[in-house]
Amino acid sequence: MIKISILYPNTGKFDMDYYLRTHMPRSIALLSAGPGYRGVSVERGLGGTAPNSAPSHIAMCHYLFDSTDDFLAAFLPHAAELQGDMPNYTGIEPVIQFSEVVISR
């Protein structure tokens, strides 16, 4: 299984309300219709390791697919729409990482 992580560093404004109520429902509707979709989770950064410190990432989204090819087949037809919506919730450049899930319980 492959995890696609979209990490938003805590370097600017992020409209979590818009992201959760508008962007993510649309993203889920589009990507979950693709092959190999297994799920998605969204996290809100709360803090760093030091007491009362800011989180390194303000938000994180993790999609699970059977393979990288499955994700690309689901995402690429909708890439312009989903990426075009980003200015509505942030100006932060996300960090994208593809990972192989080796343990999941």
TrEMBL record:
SUPFAM superfamilies, sorted: Dimeric alpha+beta barrel
The terms under GO molecular function for this entry are:
oxidoreductase activity
Q: Please name the Gene3D superfamilies in this protein's record.
A: 3.30.70.100
Domain (EthD) spans 16-90
Which Pfam families does the record match to this protein? EthD
Q: What is this protein called?
A: EthD protein
What species does this protein belong to? mine drainage metagenome
Identify the taxonomic lineage of the organism of origin. Answer: unclassified sequences, metagenomes, ecological metagenomes
